[in-house]
Amino acid sequence: MTGRMKAGWGMAGENVAGKSVIGKPVAGILLCIAVAASSPSVSLAGSPEFAYTAEQWASFRDNKLEFDEIAYLIHEYNNTVIQNQIAYKEYRGETRDDISQDYYDAADDVYGAMDYPDSSDSDYASRLSSYLNSQIQVDKLREQGDDNVDDGEIKKLGYDQTEATLVKQAQTSMINYWTQAYNLESLNEGKTQAQLAYDSTVTKFSAGMSTQADVLTAKESVSSAEASILSARTSLDKTREELCLMLGWTYGADVEICDVPEPDLDGISAIDLEADVTKALENNYSLKILEKQINYAVSATNRESLEQSYKNQKEVAANSVKTAYQNLILAKEDYVQAQQSYELESSTMAAADRKLLAGTMTRNDYQKQKSSFTTAEVNVRTKKLALLTAQVNYDWAVDGLASVS
């Protein structure tokens, strides 16, 4: 099995769906504590101080974003999660009948305020329309009460599902950040090569060995490379900002994005797909919710509809896990191939270093080899990140987020 970032209950009794580090987070709906301008603002967390050790709190509140603390930061500082924690207080311990009664009470309130208009009233038509609309609202609320299949536990499952989805999203975003960073590195190397080609073309033009059109073409290549770098840097900055805000930092906070973990190659090789499919169906949030709702269904029609949905979603979820596994294996194969290519380029690069030192290779040929080596290096990093993304997708599919639609 791969080492997955599972959701679990923290010491404070709330759900924690993974891990990752950041510094001085701030939750949007909580009071903020002012700190020095050089540091991000710190907010009150969703859990009390005794929920974690002093060392853990210090790690959560430093200025580093580490992959293995993402889930804790989402749980403590993500605005959506905190709002859901507050909303859940209204449903904690509520039974199906309690929630149904809320609909009935609301219907009674609307009904009690209804007043059938007198036909002699000057605004009879508009008041009659209002009365009929209120009657429709009453009927709808009572129908919702009859058909309600939720209780406090089901509400919590929905909130837990949202939190787990946010953790997965943040993990994927952090991996994507590094994918974009490596791509930017590759673009910078491409610009260096374009600049060398331009300089060479200008030299040849001065010697009458190239045309003005060749110079302009080479110059356009440099300009195009610069434009690509600018676009990539803007995209990278946007990903960084969105990730940090999602995990609780204020806008523009100075955060160190730490490296992501290596893919678990041994764990991937040891996967028991059939066992994981079974586990995925047991863990799936949507299926858990449907199971409980089926038990609460009062009308035969509602029950049959929910049972059919459960059957369809169970089949889709199982196929989703299998598809995620296939993607994982393909990503692993791509990574292994990229590693082999990188090792070959490394050997060639070492030989080029020796040749340059011995004076048997021109600087231009050396730069071409260096570019080829850098491309292979960036490619193996990119394939590693693609594999890590596939691993995160598979792990979360098994841990409750397999697609059901």
TrEMBL record:
Q: Specify where it is mainly localized.
A: membrane
Q: Per its record, how is this protein called by name?
A: TolC family protein
Q: Which organism is it from?
A: Enterocloster hominis
The UniProt entry, under InterPro entries, shows: OMP_efflux, TolC-like
Keyword match Transmembrane: yes
Q: For this UniProt entry, which segments traverse the membrane?
A: none
* Upper taxonomic lineage: Bacteria, Bacillati, Bacillota, Clostridia, Lachnospirales
Family membership noted in the UniProt record: Belongs to the outer membrane factor (OMF) (TC 1.B.17) family.
What Pfam family is a match, any one?
Answer: OEP
Write the record's keywords in alphabetical order, separated by commas. Answer: Cell outer membrane, Membrane, Transmembrane, Transmembrane beta strand, Transport
Q: Which Gene3D superfamilies match?
A: Outer membrane efflux proteins (OEP)
Protein location: Cell outer membrane
